[in-house]
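Customer escalation, tier 2.

The customer says the design service returned an amino acid string that "doesn't look like it belongs to this structure." They asked us to rerun it and document both sides in this ticket. The original structure tokens are below, unchanged.
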């Protein structure tokens, strides 16, 4: 339950990183065009945003599933003993 609470943070960081990456790519394109005379024809399509959100969601839930399985393997007595020390 606690692991799923970070899903909104993962989505928010993905949504914030896309405009930042686009700005950086535009700067790189301008630098290459001005300094080297080299033009990179990069275009952003909105479907890529859905692909990114899908990939972030799949990776998040896969890692949550793996983490939950590992946490479930730890005996409760071991956890309680660790916190008492």
């Amino acid at each position: 339950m606690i692991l799923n609470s970070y899903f909104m943070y993962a989505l928010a960081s993905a949504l914030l990183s896309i405009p930042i990456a686009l700005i950086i790519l535009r700067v790189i394109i301008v630098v290459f065009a001005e300094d080297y005379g080299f033009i990179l024809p990069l275009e952003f399509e909105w479907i890529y945003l859905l692909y990114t959100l899908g990939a972030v969601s799949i990776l998040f839930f896969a890692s949550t599933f793996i983490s939950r399985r590992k946490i479930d393997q730890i005996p409760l007595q071991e956890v309680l003993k660790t916190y008492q020390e």
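Tier 2 assessment: The sequence is consistent with the input. The mean pLDDT is 84. The two ends are 26 Å apart (CA to CA). Sent an explanation to the customer and offered a walkthrough call.
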